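Please, structure for the following, as tokens.
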Amino acid sequence: MTAFRALVVSEAKLLFRDPVTWLAAVVLPSVILLIFGGIFSAEPDTTLGGPRWVELFVPSLVVITVGTLGIQTLPQRLATYREKGILRRLATTPVHPAGLLAAQLVLYAATSVVALLLLIAVAYVRFDVPLPRDLPGYVAAFLLGMTSLFAVGLLLAAVAPSARAATAIAIPLFFAVMFLGGVYMPRALLPEIVQRIGEFTPPGVPALTDAWLGTTPELAPLAAMALGTLVVGALATRLFRWE
């Protein structure tokens, strides 16, 4: 088993020994959809631009998964490792910072995909929400939005001296991402300037929504997500501290 694979397997075991984290990331979005989808009207809402409320809410729920994993779990876990000296011991092995961060990215990306598939299945079976109409566009928007948000989490994880410090930064950042992503309030009801900011804020919910409804996502936000992933990810690797 290669060192990279061993890292991924080890981190996966630790993640799934923490049911609160993976249940919040994988199951919670679908549970929220079941609860609120059954409360609000299933008819098209003209105040939201025509589609049913539930069709616009499903893409926003993706934020819960990638935000929980990328902004909260990932930085806190690595900061805890740094605080307890685990990273200092890893520094004596052939493990490179880029490999350690990439292992986290692979694990949390795989978990996010599982959560997304569950959410799509629940939306389709329970509320007859059509599958993403522009599937290639949706896949591209999801991957770019997810990796750009995870890159932010990796940067925080790379420099946070302790779990408490990581949490202090992660919590307000998480709520800001949730707000801009339309989890608390439909994006159509937000001020236009806030909606525009949300287009360029990971994980790029407007692009996810457009692709889901069959409209080709705008290229500028997707390009910004791709650039952000490369720049912030490289910065995280460069600034990574073992202790």
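The chain has a mean pLDDT of 84. Residues 159 and 167 are 13 Å apart (CA to CA).
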